[in-house]
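Example record used in the benchmark description.
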Amino acid sequence: MSCSSYIVGDEARFAATFSIPGTAPPQMYDPATVVFMVRTPLGVETEYVYGTDAELLRISTGVYALNVQFSEPSLPAAPGATPPQPFARDWFLRFISEGLFASASEQRIKVRPSNFTNPFPGGGGSNPFAMLDDGEAMNDDGEPMTDTP
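Model output (structure tokens):
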């Protein structure tokens, strides 16, 4: 089970896993430095560093996560257009590890505008499903989710 579509106002948790290359099963490790970057459709980039920014969480050895709220409003509609025409907006996410096994991973996320004039009346929405690097959905505790109740 996974979520491949987001709407402005959704919040999702994204995670990166770090393992020693060539180990089977994968041997997880904590890199010397973990950085998570978010780039909004309007080009605003925010960087989170583990140990400095409380938003970047260490879930377990080698597993780090960040909650991202897709809160940038959609562009205004053309005069006379009601409601605004929906269009996909690209957000970009990047995890970086520095140290012995330096690596980086990027992901493009499509976020649709809301059909509502004010999509944030209660402070934003929440979507508990987000993708792990291997495509599994994870819950708010950073645990993989299953299709069974």
